[in-house]
Amino acid sequence: MTFNKPYLIRLAHCDATGMVFLPNYFYIFNALVEDWFYEGLEVRYDEYLMQGHLALSTVKLETVFSAPSKMGETVDFWLTVTHLGRTSVRFTMGVDHEGSARVRMQRIAVLTSQVENRPVPWPDELREKINEFMLG
Amino acid sequence: MTFNKPYLIRLAHCDATGMVFLPNYFYIFNALVEDWFYEGLEVRYDEYLMQGHLALSTVKLETVFSAPSKMGETVDFWLTVTHLGRTSVRFTMGVDHEGSARVRMQRIAVLTSQVENRPVPWPDELREKINEFMLG
Amino acid sequence: MTFNKPYLIRLAHCDATGMVFLPNYFYIFNALVEDWFYEGLEVRYDEYLMQGHLALSTVKLETVFSAPSKMGETVDFWLTVTHLGRTSVRFTMGVDHEGSARVRMQRIAVLTSQVENRPVPWPDELREKINEFMLG
Amino acid sequence: MTFNKPYLIRLAHCDATGMVFLPNYFYIFNALVEDWFYEGLEVRYDEYLMQGHLALSTVKLETVFSAPSKMGETVDFWLTVTHLGRTSVRFTMGVDHEGSARVRMQRIAVLTSQVENRPVPWPDELREKINEFMLG
């Protein structure tokens, strides 16, 4: 299953070229993961971070940018899970517009305890929910 | 008429205290004005800026912060117009949560031409639409 | 005494008009307060926040923007203290370029305990150091 | 030759975990490239973008995060060139702290004309200057 969400490209996302300033894509990708928790997994991201003292720490990112996005466009962000390890997860994420690819990202993240500062296994309930977004 | 819109307080908005990092409020207030153009005035903000070579330049801001907002809350942003001059507009804007005030802002902005770099009068069509959001 | 610091206006600060995107000024003003702690007061801002569990919470901001700043300019930010209360401080801050004013800000902030979530009196040592930046 | 620059990790860079919020690293990496232009290549980045109508468009990023950075640390950012093509450049960039690696990044970018919206060859003068930062 894929989690899809459209985002408006705002003035705040663009630099003096009128196109998305690259670091701002990573903000929207973080909003996508946040919205996937709230709306896809139906898990409160704030409680998971603040009360659960957990973090989803990115360890590797590979990103290919094939076409720019400009202010006023509403573009399609999406996320799917391609691997779920004992403490890790691998996402494929993308940005599309009218069916053509703008950005492709591979992202490996690890569930970590903010208290112990080390990887921890996925809780069973979260693992089951994430599994539903596993590709294929 | 008041333009209202809820926004989720995201991880990206908060600093190490877990509360909204103050400059990030101004980002959301800019998103509010942008959304007011698209959804309230039904004017494309991107065309107004990029093709129309106009800008809504803030000249004065007064902001009072009475209570902090924290990650995971969905808070109510709103905007109303309290004065509409020949080239200027005065907004009252706010952030509320469960009926109590978090932020109050007075904002005076001037319509400026990016080409001539000086204030220009509101086009009649835009003036009429903005008038609908005049308080009282 | 006035605390002065030049900052380069970066691509990241500017929007599609090529001028500073207004919320980004507030980022730089926060960097100015941070640098004032480290370099002016010679107090570690990170320890004050993270180990001291204190915060400098802004309660009121008044800002006047008189001329825009553009990418590539190095502009002069400055800060002076105009009132020091039992738990509060009032700053006058500004942005100048080649001697003419770009931005003027009045900012009232309160020292708060992150643990008790209420205003706390300035520690004597900090009060003495802040007093050196009192105007006049 | 390697271009090195220390950056202070600010409150604004950190999220509610007290560590750098990942997208903010990309802001600092962009500041690094900007500072490399001004200070390393001694080319005005603003003129290159705004008067020259050129852009340095990233097409691929690979980033490995091995340890977090926290507020108040001053960390070492660096950049070296590993390939210089007709219209492209490949950078290796990093963040170190006290000699140990925090972040490693491979970045491929293409010089593009903002007018024609396509890759353009490096001007000879810029090519020569970039060549000085070629590894080995």
Keywords:
homotetramer; 136 residues; alpha+beta; six-stranded antiparallel beta sheet; 3 helices; 40% strand
What does this structure look like?
Four copies of one chain form a homotetramer. Chain A has 136 residues and is α+β, with helices and mostly antiparallel strands. Chain A is globular, with a radius of gyration of 15 Å. In chain A, strands 1, 2, 3, 4, 5 and 6 form a six-stranded antiparallel β-sheet that branches. The model of chain A has no long low-confidence stretch (mean pLDDT 94). The first copy, chain A, is built from three helices and six strands, in the order βααβββββα. The first copy, chain A, has helices at residues 22-41, 45-50, 124-131; strands spanning 3-8, 54-65, 74-84, 88-97, 100-113, 118-119. At the A-C interface, loops of A face loops of C.
Q: How would you classify the quaternary structure?
A: homotetramer
- Overall number of strands of chain A: 6
Based on secondary structure, the structural category of chain A is alpha+beta
Gross geometry of chain A: globular
Q: Biggest interface in this structure?
A: A-D, 25 and 25 residues
Beta fraction of chain A? 35-45%
Query: What's the end-to-end separation of chain A, in Å?
Result: 8 Å
Low-pLDDT parts of chain A are none
Number of helices of chain A: 3
Helix share, percent of chain A:
25-40%
Q: Overall pLDDT of chain A, averaged?
A: 94
Sketch the topology of chain A as an H/E string, one letter per element: EHHEEEEEH
Largest sheet of chain A: 6 strands, antiparallel
Radius of gyration of chain A: 15 Å
